[in-house]
Amino acid sequence: MRLILITLFLLAGCTPIKHPRTHGTPPPLPAVTDLKSYYEGIFYAIQWEFYDPDHFIGKRCEMRLDLDDKGQLTGIHNMTGDLGLCEAAMYAAQHAALPAPPSVEVYEKMKTVVLVFAPE
After folding, report:
1. d(Cα 32, Cα 70) in Å, to the nearest integer?
2. Of 13, 31, 42, 75, which sits with the fewest C-beta atoms within 10 Å of its C-beta?
3. DSSP states of 7-63 as a string?
4. Three-state SS for 82?
5. Which helix (H) or strand (E) holds 118?
6. Residue 95, class by beta-carbon neighbours within 10 Å (0-12 exposed, 13-18 middle, 19+ buried)?
7. Do the beta carbons of residue 65 and residue 73 sit within 8 Å?
């Protein structure tokens, strides 16, 4: 009996923990056509990669993203807020498929963007 329990515990420890969204295809990004929709697209892409938002309810994090002209992340900086939430948000930003800016004008305004995460 002991051997069976030990075997079950060992096998359970070998099962990788998966985020529920890894089993499906992410929904398409919203259409990015102007400054507002570009900001929303960035935020949406990061939210899709964010794990366990319920764990951070009531907490807040501000972070600054530096983007290149293709919309790719070139820098990320924690400005203020809860360290755990900021680390989770930074991880999500690094793994997110960020949209490209719709125009040079939008890129110039959004090459440095501040996002506030405050799960409710």
Report:
1. 13
2. 13
3. HHHHHHHTSPP--GGGGSPPPPPPP--SHHHHHHHHHHHHHHH---GGGGTT--EEE
4. coil
5. none
6. middle
7. yes
> What is the separation of C-alpha 91 from the centre of its chain, rounded to a whole number of angstroms?
6
Boundaries of every domain in the chain:
24-117
Residue whose tokens read 């290149």? 68
C-beta of residue 56 within 8 angstroms of C-beta of residue 82 = yes
Query: For residue 51, how many C-alpha atoms fall within 13 Å in the half-sphere facing its CB?
Result: 13
Please give the Cα distance from 36 to 113 (Å, whole number).
12
**Could you confirm whether domain 24-117 is CATH 3.10.150.10?**
no
Each residue of 13-43: pLDDT tens digit?
Answer: 433 334 445 545 666 777 899 999 999 999 9
